[in-house]
Specification:
The protein has eleven helices and nine strands. By secondary structure, it is of the alpha+beta class. It has two domains: 65 residues, Arc Repressor Mutant, subunit A (Orthogonal Bundle); 164 residues, Beta-Lactamase, CATH 3.30.450.40. The strands form two sheets. It has a six-stranded antiparallel sheet. Helix 2 crosses helix 3, helix 2 packs across helix 4 and helix 7 crosses helix 9. The radius of gyration is 21 Å and the shape is globular.
Amino acid sequence: MPSNAEESSGSARTGRSSAAGSAAEKSLRVLEAVAAPGGPHRLTDVAAAAAVPKSSAFRILASLVDQGFVRQAPESRYVVGPRLRALSALVDGGEPAGVGRVLDELRRTTGQTVHLALHSGETITYIRKLEGDQPFRTASRVGMRMPLHTTAIGKGVLAHLPAGEVTGLVAATGLPGRTPNTLTTPQALYTQLAAVRSLGYAIDDEENEPTIRCIGAAVLGPSGRPVGGISVTTVTFLVSREEIESYAPALRAAAEALAPLL
């Protein structure tokens, strides 16, 4: 007569036809199902492919969305999120052809640090960083998640999201201040987002980190929805606001060039 441990082990080996497996195994199967070709995938299809109950799949997906590994698409479907894309890039160095060329051209044109980030929920996640020629290094890194309302890329993203979605994000985050310059009221943010839509770029003027000034623009998907953004980062004691705004034409051109690549 087998022991309870043996019965448990035997049950776990019955395969994907049951909900067997540790929490980590289930999460990995759900992630694998989301990343499968043919997405965005419905919750029902993800649960079936991962062989976990629908309720468990929903909880796992909610956690993965919160962590940035999965992104919730329209109509309650799920796609790969920016943190998983960043992890993939770190593992194999791969990226869509041409992305590196566009980023490097912007860096050479401005001489400043260039960031590429993808949007997921309430944050953006940096997936590429190219250091500039200046004698300083910023604290940002690939895989870092940043707020939307305090960053140039984030404000570029917000400016191109539907108004109702922006209102929901503002209510969810509460617009916490990171520096004295952070926009912490909805009206101040909405006023600036209108300007961002008009200009085609956003400025982070020490709103996320003291002495750091950035100019950023959204990268739009085929439907016009922002998938992320690109920015040029400087320090206030070396580059004036007027000078960083002079990078706008090169920045917008880079964002347009990246759109079909992402």
